[in-house]
Structure formats: structure tokens, C-alpha cells
Amino acid sequence: MRSVIENDQLTIEHGRLITDSINQGMMAFTPSMLFEHLVKNYSLAKNIFGEAIIRRLTGYEPGSIEKNINLPEFQRELLGKIEERFGELKEEGLLDSEGAITEKAVDLASMILYTEELDKIAPKGSAGDKIHRKQNPYGLKDEIKSYTKGRYRDIAIRKSVRKAMLRGHKEIQLEDLMSYKRKSKGHCSIIYGLDASGSMKGKKLEKCKKAGIALAYRAIEQKDSVGLLIFGADVKAAVKPSQDFTGLLREIAKARASAQTDIAGTIREAARLFYGSKVSKHLVLITDALPTKGAEPEQETLDAAAMASAEGITISLVGIGLDSKGRELAEKIVERGNGRLFIVKDLEEVDSIVLMDYYGVE
Question: Does the CA dihedral 248-333-357-184 come out positive or negative?
Fold first, then answer.
């Protein structure tokens, strides 16, 4: 599929359209419905569908549509363009006879997300180094100590030079040498908790999906296990940690935004998925809002975080546009979960932040 995507611009365009539709929470639509919304109230239609979908379905820039939407001849041309695009999608098997997104369409959307994210992270390499006991028997460089007989690669050159200078030595003496103390690290099991509530629809959800793909790709590459929780008013999808990248990719791709935010239930479900795991267990939550489900959603969330921590699960949180109250709760969650809090200021950096958290898991 990747070779097809790379050599077929129309397939890319269709894949992007399906991806945008899912991210807007739309799993089905018809030409007549879309056209009716555009003609009746363009501003409302723009909020429902998003500018990207309107552009891809009509071939027109949103500003041009808004300017000419009341002209009968333009309306006829617009409807023709929309029907033509829907015909292409049905012919390729991306929409069924009722206008619903098919399984083939979800597969295409997952490949589009995958190729776009891989093209972004591959040239830069890893944002860090996840070293495992199996891959490196000497462990991870941790504390600095005086050098004793051992691996010369562990010598901390800058620290050694500084120590020699402080002692007034013109040349580095044996007693000046400092080395890294290696800290062993084993494999870990990580769950990506993706907020798919209504406030996440559109670009936010797309960037967070790609961050989940980057995490799955890098972690599985390092022989770690990755699971997935997609949550809104409740947990919409739960995938037990494994090394099934294709399965994770597909579940991430079809996540769509809707309803409220239940963080407490998500943490409890993560604990269930982790049950029986003998390696390090880590949950990273990515959300843009306070929990809203439950009689006392904030307290229930903190209680769930404390419960998870008691079971050896660490919790980090990536906050997108959190207000002061949301940030205060997020700080309490990661404190109870012995994790880290990251505040996203630029959506383009979400994947790097999620990977940074992964590389810090012990």
C-alpha cells in the first residue's frame, strides 16, 4: 500500500479526505447532505465539516465557496464536483452505497498517517536513546563516579578534563579520570491513552494520532510492548500491550472525536490491561481538557491515579492547551502517578514530546 500511495496522488488525496473525515467525527455522509449544508448555512457547514474536507470534496477554496455560494450557476457546478468526488470514493471502495466509510478506507487512512509521520521522524532519528539490558549489557549512563578499571568508553571526558584543570594538572592523571556509572534498564510496557472527546476533533486529534504512531513505531522497534486506550465519555477502544504495530495503527486511525472526557475510567482500564505484566508499566495520557464524567470527576481521577501507582504503574500526562485549573489537576495526576507533565504549546511538537516521555521511562 505504501508503494501505491507514494505513486498515486489521487489515492493520497482520497486518503487525506477519509482521515480528515474521521478526525472530524464523521463516519458517513452523502453528496446531497453536504451540498444542503453548504447552501443553507455555509458558516455552520464549515464548523461541522472543517475547511480541509470542504476543499478536498469540492476542489474549491473555502473563501471562494463562501463568496459565490448564492449563485445558482455556481451551486450547480459545486454539486457536480461533489458528486464526482463521491463517485470516485465509491468506485475505489472507500465509501459504501450508503455513504459510510468502509474498512478499506480505514486501512488507507492508517497508511496515510503512518507514511506522513514516518517521513517526519525518520530523518531526525530518535529524540533520545532507549537502551535495554538485552541490547546493552552495560546498562544506561547514569551517575558520574571516579574511574576504576573497566570500559574506556565509560570515561566522562569533559568531567575528567575539568577535574584535572581544577587540580592544576597540565596533563590528565589517572586520579583525574571520571566515569559514568551504568544503570541497567529492562524492557517496558506502555499504554498510549488518547483523548478523543469532542474538543479534540480536527487537527488536534490528527497530531495526537501521529504521536501515537511515532510512539508505537519507536517502542516496538526497541522490543517494548505498546497498548492503546482511546477515550471520550468512556473507553472506546482498548488494546492490550503487544508488538502488533499494524493492529495499533488501524485502531489509532479510526479513532473519532465525540462526547465527554473520562480520565478516571481510562486509568482504571489501563490497570486492567497491565494486569500480570512483570516489566515496567507506564501510561501516557494525552488530553486537552479536565475530566467531565462522574459525580466528582476530578477526585475520581486522582483516586484512580493513586490506585494505579500502588500497582506499579507510572503515569505521565501531555496537556494540550490546558487552562490553569486543568494544569493544576494534571500536576496532581502525575504526582500521584510518579510521572511527568508536558504542556504542549505547538501541535507540531506533540510527537517529539510523547517520544521524550517514552525515552524517560525506567
Answer: negative
Mean pLDDT, all residues of the chain? 86
The pairs formed by 42-51 with CB atoms below 8 angstroms and a separation of 24 or more are 42/66, 42/69, 48/24, 49/24, 50/20, 50/24, 50/202
Q: Say if CB 220 and CB 247 are below 8 A apart.
A: no
Report which of 359, 38, 50 is spatially closest to residue 224, judged by C-alpha positions.
359
User: Which residues, at least 6 apart from 185, have a Cβ–Cβ distance to it below 8 Å?
Assistant: 130, 131, 132, 133, 139, 140, 362
Whether the Cβ atoms of residue 280 and residue 362 lie closer than 8 Å to each other: yes
Summarize pLDDT for 167-208 with one digit per residue, the tens.
888 888 877 777 765 444 568 999 999 999 888 999 999 999
pTM (whole model) above 0.70? yes
DSSP class of 238: E
Nearest by Cα to 298 from 321, 267, 272: 267
pLDDT tens digits, 82-119: 999 999 999 999 999 999 999 999 999 999 999 889 88
Of 63, 23, 13, give the one whose Cα is nearest residue 42: 63
How many C-beta atoms surround the C-beta of residue 3 within 10 A?
7
Which uninterrupted H or E stretch holds 179? strand 178-183
Contacts of 67 (CB under 8 A, 6+ apart): none
